[in-house]
Amino acid sequence: MDARDGDALSRLGAVRSATIQDTSLAAQAAIQHARSELQRTVYEYIFTCGSEGATDEEIQLGISMNGSTERPRRRELEKAGVVIDSGTTRRTLSGRRAIVWKIRQIASDDANIPRADRLRQRDPWGL
Predict the structure, then answer these.
(1) For the chain, N or C: smaller number of CB within 10 Å?
(2) Is 9 within the bounds of a domain?
(3) Which whole number is the average pLDDT over 15-21?
């Protein structure tokens, strides 16, 4: 193998590395998009519940999402300060107490707005 062969292999390695990096970036973007969509689904469900809020179990049942998918998305929204612990609990189907989650911007006077009307409102998070 002469110097030209070494240069060609070096260029091939650089191209391969760039392709892998591009693929990784594309995959990362796709995962972020999917996570964002799942967060949005969780957020919108809690938003439609208004001041009543929702437990993790209620969210999972309401949007047909597995708990292993829903809980991390709700937690991300909680960390972002969008979803908050309401300070109340409700019983789950198994009889255990579960935290009721609410959207931070939902005021207590929204309890008087029918759920169907809340569905038509533009949400405060801009989704």
Answers:
(1) N
(2) no
(3) 61
